[in-house]
Amino acid sequence: MSTDLPPPAAPRLYFLDWLRAAAFGLLILYHVGMYYVSWDWHIKSPHAGDTIEPLMRLSSPWRLALLFLISGAAMSMLLARRPAGFVRERSKRLLLPLALGMLVIVPPQAYLEVVHKVNYGGSYLDFMRLYLSGYGGFCRNVDCLILPTWNHLWFVAYLWVYCVALWALLKAWPSLLERLAARIDRQLGGWGMLLWPAALLALWRVLLAPRFPTTHALVDDVYSHALYFSVFLAGAVLARWGRWAAFERWRWIALAVALALWGLLAAYFAHYAGNLAPPEWLRPLQRVGYGTLQWLALVAAIGFAHRHWNHDHRWRATVVEAVFPVYLLHQTLIILAAWWLRPLGLSPAVEAPLLIAATAAGCVGGYLIVRRIGPLRVWFGLGWPTLQQAAAFDGQAASSRVTRAT
């Protein structure tokens, strides 16, 4: 089977569009959950505990890996169709929103974090002067907040680096992805679809995770780069391979084994919580299970998406466009909404749905504003509106004026 990418007129991989949107939606729920678990986060609920931590572990091993895999596939297709100006275009789409995020969107998160954790009493403007100067004195014991920060926008920085790395690899070896696609055509037959990629991710988990804890600081995040660049490159190769139906065939087995591993890992972390340390022989087995779960969850997610979501819809283009602005805004909105709800003393059963609803409304409202304003579109990674979009906006505005007049 040819591993060449289909021509530009070929049907779009709709299931990856829907899967990407679903993964970012899951990310919003996960970050709301971070307010209520015992793990460290920017601010914490007075009700924080370990109740929902097993549910959080259901997606935490693989959710971001899925986003990097989908991004790798998208970049592979883009490079095949429009290689000219790739780095310039990716830099504009990723680095401008990253700069906006670090200067405007993220600072409220950092401000409320230092108010919450170290009882900072200065105003927001006072804090911003410290933030922009790289102040390093917001510390709890040896844990100091690094300023300025990108917080949840680390994904954007990593993605830009991986895009440039992929471009450089294809500049040096133009046929690299086709050769790798031909190779996996032989290796991923039968059980190889499940075994070999899982073995690689388990290897990274065993060898690198203990020595290089996740930092999201780019330069020292060895395990994260091994994991995320591996799946990013896998997505790029899979786009040239084209046999997405292979994931569909294995979806039920992958899902069943992934859920079984999740249950074992949830029991492991629940049993060895606090000061109780697991035996040394058990740690590598836990890491093998974790790495295996990462890949099998990806197989299941892609397989079910290919089965059920590989079709277009009139809302798809809007949903796809909205994903990036929603991602940029969501964590700041979560933290602001949580901070405003704290004085009410609501139970999590009441507060959490309100927090989700407020975040969703803020994200949708923010996107609807951003999409209509050319300069804002650029800074939120959307680019200038097309002629069709501009005409649609003008038509909607005219319709709204007529409605108000009548």
From TrEMBL:
In which domain of life is the source organism classified?
Bacteria
Q: Which residue range or ranges hold the Acyltransferase domain?
A: 14-364
A Pfam family (short name) is Acyl_transf_3
Q: Name one GO molecular function term.
A: acyltransferase activity
State the UniProt keywords alphabetically.
Answer: Acyltransferase, Membrane, Transferase, Transmembrane, Transmembrane helix
Keyword check for Transferase? yes
Q: Which InterPro entries match?
A: Acyl_transf_3_dom, Glucan_succinyl_AcylTrfase
Q: Could you list the residue ranges that cross the membrane? A: 18-37, 64-82, 94-112, 152-170, 191-210, 222-241, 253-273, 288-306, 318-340, 352-370
Record-given protein name: Acyltransferase family protein
Origin organism of this chain?
Pseudaquabacterium terrae
